[in-house]
Amino acid sequence: MAYDIYTDFEKSMVKVIQGVNAKLNISCMPIVSHSSAPEPTQDYVAINTLRLIATGRADSSNGPVTINGGIATQYLVQNYEVVVQLTFVGKNAGNNAMTYHSQYSGNTPYREIFTKNNLAIRRRTDVRRSPQLRENVWVNAYSFDMTLGFAVRTAHEIDWADKITVNGELIPLP
Known about the structure:
Blueprint: H1 5-24, E1 29-32, E2 44-60, E3 66-68, E4 71-89, H2 93-103, H3 108-116, E5 120-124, E6 128-129, E7 132-134, E8 137-139, E9 141-157, E10 163-166, E11 169-172
Parallel strand pairs: 1-2
Antiparallel strand pairs: 2-4, 3-4, 4-9, 5-9, 6-9, 7-8, 10-11
Helix pairs in contact: 1-3
C-alpha cells in the first residue's frame, strides 16, 4: 500500500492556511509551489516543502497484533520533521506574512488549527523580504520557514499462525 506523505502534508498545510485565513479574516489564497498552475492574480501564499526528514525509528505495535476478520495487522508509526517555506505574494504580502508569523508563538486557536490537521509547530525563522521580478515589474513577496512535526501511521498485514505441525503433531501456539 502506497502512502503519499508529501501530498498528504501539502493538503494539510492548505487546510491550515484556509483555517487561519478564516480565523484572522485574511484573504490570501494558499497554493502549493511547483504545481504548474498559473500564478494567481490576488494575494496568495505559496507552500514550498523544503525538507521532509524521518526522525528516529518507526514504532511498531508490540504484543498481540490486531486481528480484523482473521487478518493479522501490525501498525507502524513514523515521526517526521518537515521544513516548509511560506512565501506571501501580492499587494498585502508584508502585512499577511507578519500577521501569520506573529500568530504562531502563542495564539491557542491558531495552534489548534495545526493540531486538527495533524501538525505540530516546532520552530520558525524570521520574516525576510524577497521581492520577485515579473517581466519589468517588482512584486512584493515575504517569506519565512517553519519546522513542523507530524507522524504517519501505517498498517501492514502480516502472516500469523495459531498452530504448527511438528512431526505430524498439531501444536497450538500460546
